[in-house]
């Protein structure tokens, strides 16, 4: 017997114009995006204080992760299940916890890379053979 799809249809959030999802973004079941104002109050109109939240290409957001308004999620970052993101996330960063902290680096293929959080070094993806370079706290794919 085939498993039934239990996903609940998603409705467009009221702040959809301020949330930008780039191409190839993987969103697991029900990540939460907090209101687009830093300190919302239902009786106070603050449309002039809306903050832009940007989710860049290839980002993965785990189930029940919460993204505070006004942050940028870098390309191919990986947000763990239940993490609470309160500040910008670097490209390829692996984030976990409440509040979220960087605990590693991920490849575009979704594998954890054998790289320290800081330093200058390289790692090779076993699945693709791509070489990832860590320089001054930033990871990039070597061409």
Automatic annotation (TrEMBL):
Pfam families assigned: Hexapep
Broad class of enzyme this protein falls into: transferase
Record-listed E.C. numbers: 2.3.1.-
Keywords for the protein's UniProt record, in alphabetical order: Acyltransferase, Transferase
Statement: the UniProt record of this protein carries the keyword Signal: no
Keyword Phosphoprotein: no
Similarity remark: Belongs to the transferase hexapeptide repeat family.
Entry protein name: UDP-2-acetamido-3-amino-2, 3-dideoxy-D-glucuronate N-acetyltransferase
């Amino acid at each position: 017997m085939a498993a039934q799809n239990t996903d609940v249809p998603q409705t467009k959030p009221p702040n959809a114009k301020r949330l930008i999802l780039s191409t190839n973004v993987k969103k697991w079941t029900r990540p939460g995006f907090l209101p687009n104002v830093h300190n919302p109050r239902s009786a106070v109109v603050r449309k002039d204080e809306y903050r832009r939240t940007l989710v860049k290409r290839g980002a993965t957001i785990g189930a029940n992760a919460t993204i505070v308004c006004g942050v940028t999620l870098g390309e191919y970052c990986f947000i763990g299940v239940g993490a609470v993101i309160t500040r910008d996330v670097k490209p390829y960063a692996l984030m976990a916890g409440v509040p979220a902290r960087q605990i590693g680096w991920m490849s575009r293929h979704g594998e954890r890379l054998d790289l320290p959080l800081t330093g200058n070094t390289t790692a090779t993806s076993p699945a693709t053979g791509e070489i990832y370079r860590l320089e001054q706290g930033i990871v990039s794919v070597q061409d």
